[in-house]
Design brief:
Number of helices of chain B: 24
Helix content of chain A: 10-25%
Mean pLDDT of chain B: 97
Order of helices and strands of chain A: EHEHEEEEE
Helix content of chain B: 40-55%
Structural class of chain B: alpha+beta
Distance between the termini of chain A: 30 Å
Oligomer: heterodimer
Structural class of chain A: alpha+beta
Largest interface: A-B, 28 and 32 residues
Low-confidence stretches of chain B: none
Radius of gyration of chain B: 22 Å
Number of strands of chain A: 7
Strand content of chain A: 25-35%
Number of strands of chain B: 17
Largest sheet of chain A: 5 strands, mixed
Strand content of chain B: 5-15%
Shape of chain B: globular
């Protein structure tokens, strides 16, 4: 699937996007922190820190690590406080 | 005298420069706390809800708070409260920094200004070398030489003239000329929305200078110190990283990615050139520094270098003076932001009104062929005309709702406002819980009094198809905002709290000694929201005002047709909101 970082997650990742294969949100987050250790601040124990959120295809915001994901999904990782 | 307070209001009559100290009952303080809550109460007590906000008699309140002067991070804030000349409804605008500390240091919990000075003046309130319990010295200082001065220049001149220790809030040329969205500025920050600068200008007050170092006593100083240390520590964590590292400008690419970035007067929700204006891009092409308000550990202010000097960049000025006007040139947007700062006008209302006029010109409803989307020259020219109220600027200085009434045709349908206040950078069709927040806001379309966009960016709702379940979430954000604006704490802290009401109660208890609980503060928040509505009722509010312009209710977003909000759905949300509020 395609993963895109916005805002602080992009700053931490050091890249705007990448491709990852994972069957669930938990697997995806584990794979991300393994490939990009600098994401450890926002991904802890297979979950996003509450200050950050994940969105699937611009539609659904998800946080349950068991959330199934497909290869065609586009996952966005961003700050939870999107306004301000 | 209650802990955390001075227990009085300083009521100043600008007509003669005299002031009196009016006692504040502790029961009243506990009911409305400070900031917006205290300001709303004092404004109601003044009995001017049905009056002209630009009349000499109209009251203007500067309200401090129990936490001001404490070591709690981000607590150096004040609220400016009045009837808005833009909306004719309740208006509270907040700003930060030394003015709050020095103002409360004058030995009062609020300053109420009424009357009209005989000539353009600075209102000087000086509590230095006066005994606790005595009224501060108050005088009017003629400042005709500062007529037309920018906020920045006026503050600098008065600091030099008055001597050390004064903190100054001022208006720019726009406030002097009654631009209906003029700001009150302090130290480069603005009490920005709703036109409080025009209210002060109508009193012929160019600036208010305060000096004082009286301290309210804290009930539990050791506990307060411990709570303050803990809060500061948490303010360095991930929940505030966005504000430290990128500032609110980080929203720009995020909103664009979600099709929620208002563009070309809300004709669409994506801007192809958004990256040009993003902080990520700005940082690569120009110098950047960071600044903080007094007593703040977050440091959210990102100042970008330009040929004309440093410019503080926030999401709202990037959106309003950028994508909303179709401007992709960062240099122009930064120059326009600086122009707004100098004139003392709200960037959101300025950008919203100009973008509206651009579309009217495009439609042939307005004879201004030079005013086109994407033209930086047009944007800067329009801002100057607004500041001087010359030519077309005289109409645009009235805001988009009044301008639409003059332009006619179907322009009211595309005027981007609620209750007359221009809509901030959140596309309502793509963020429909926020659409409800805008519709019901006491001061109009408002992202600071309703944080309902947070609900849209969560798993609680489907942001493009919200149901009645969204209403309780929208109410929750409005209540939280009311409490934060009355304690006062910066909303950028909101992510650090696990139990906002409970932790707020602990802080307030340490300051005041009251046996206050989280449940009591929930009730207090609701009471403050209700007080704003009470003012609006007295000012003539009707339920028909709680809505959005036709554009948002008749046309799906072109970039995202799924983002569609019907009038029936919004009406149902608003009705449910009123029901849950018990109104």
């Amino acid at each position: 699937m395609h993963v895109e970082f916005l805002g602080v997650p992009r700053e931490r990742a050091g890249i705007p996007e990448l491709e990852v294969h994972a069957a669930t949100l938990g697997q995806l987050l584990g794979a991300l922190v393994a490939r990009l250790p600098s994401l450890a601040e926002i991904i802890d124990d297979g979950r996003l820190h509450p200050a950050f959120v994940a969105n699937v295809n611009g539609d659904r915001f998800v946080k349950d690590p068991a959330t199934p994901l497909g290869d065609d999904d586009h996952v966005l990782i961003l700050s939870a406080d999107a306004g301000g | 005298m209650p802990f955390g307070y001075h227990g009085c209001v300083l009521r100043v009559d600008a007509t003669c420069g005299r002031a009196e100290r009016v006692p504040l009952d502790e029961t009243v303080l506990r009911e409305c706390l400070g900031g917006s809550g205290l300001g709303a109460r004092l404004l109601l007590d003044e009995g001017w809800a049905a009056g002209d906000p630009l009349a000499p008699e109209a009251p203007l309140v500067f309200a401090f708070s129990p936490l001001v002067g404490s070591p709690l991070t981000t607590s150096a804030k004040f609220a400016v409260v009045s009837k808005s000349p833009l909306t004719g409804r309740f208006n509270d605008s907040l700003a930060s920094s030394g003015f709050a500390v020095a103002g409360k240091g004058c030995g009062c919990d609020a300053i109420v200004v009424v009357g009209q000075a005989p000539q353009l003046s600075a209102l000087v309130i000086d509590a230095s070398d006066t005994a606790d319990g005595d009224a501060p010295r108050v005088r009017l200082e003629p400042v005709e030489a500062l007529r037309g001065a920018t906020c920045r220049d006026a503050e600098a001149a008065l600091r030099a003239q008055l001597g050390p220790g004064f903190r100054i809030a001022s208006i720019g040329p726009a406030g002097e000329r009654a631009v209906r969205y003029a700001t009150i500025s302090h130290d480069g920050r603005h009490a920005g929305r709703g036109g409080s600068g025009a209210v002060l200008g109508a009193k012929r007050i160019k600036a208010i200078a305060v000096r004082g170092s009286r301290r309210a006593q804290w009930a539990q100083p050791h506990e307060l110190t411990a709570l303050s240390r803990d809060l500061s520590q948490r303010s360095f964590g991930p929940a505030t990283a966005k504000y430290r590292e990128l500032g609110t400008a980080a929203n720009l690419l995020t909103f664009n990615r979600f099709g929620a970035l208002p563009t070309r007067n809300f004709q669409t929700g994506t801007f192809d050139e958004a990256v040009n204006l993003s902080p990520e891009q700005l940082s690569t092409t120009r110098a950047k520094t960071r600044e903080s308000c007094v007593a703040c550990t977050i440091g959210c202010e990102h100042i970008y270098g330009t040929a004309g000097g440093g410019v503080r960049v926030e999401y709202e000025n990037l959106f309003a003076l950028g994508s909303l006007c179709g401007i992709a040139d960062a240099e122009v947007v930064l120059a326009a932001s600086r122009r707004c700062d100098d004139l003392g006008i709200d960037t959101i209302s300025a950008g919203g009104t100009i973008a509206f006029a651009m579309e009217c010109a495009e439609q042939g409803w307005l004879e201004a062929p030079w005013l086109t989307f994407g033209s930086g020259d047009a944007l800067l020219r329009a801002l100057d005309l607004i500041g001087s109220r010359e030519g077309l600027g005289d109409l645009l200085a009235e805001g988009s709702r009044r301008a639409a009434a003059a332009i006619g045709h179907d322009s009211l349908a595309i005027a981007p406002q609620v209750k007359g206040l221009e809509i901030p950078g959140y596309e309502p069709r793509a963020l429909q819980t926020m659409a409800l927040g805008f519709a019901v806001g006491a001061r109009g379309a408002d992202h600071n009094r309703s944080g309902a966009y947070e609900v849209d960016f969560s798993d609680k709702v489907d942001r493009r198809h919200v149901t009645l379940d969204a209403v309780r979430h929208a109410i929750e954000t409005e209540d939280k905002a009311a409490l934060m604006d009355s304690l006062i704490l910066c909303k950028f802290l909101r992510g650090v709290f696990d139990d906002f009401y409970g932790e707020s109660a602990l802080m307030l208890r340490a300051v005041t000694g009251w046996d206050v609980t989280g449940d009591e503060l929930r009730s207090t928040a609701r009471r403050i929201v209700a007080a704003k509505r009470e003012f609006n009722l007295r000012a003539g509010w009707t339920p028909a005002e709680d809505t959005l312009p036709d554009r948002f209710l008749k046309t799906p977003l072109p970039n995202d047709p799924a983002a569609s909000l019907s009038r029936e759905r919004l009406d149902a949300l608003v009705a449910e909101y009123h029901r849950q509020r018990g109104w």
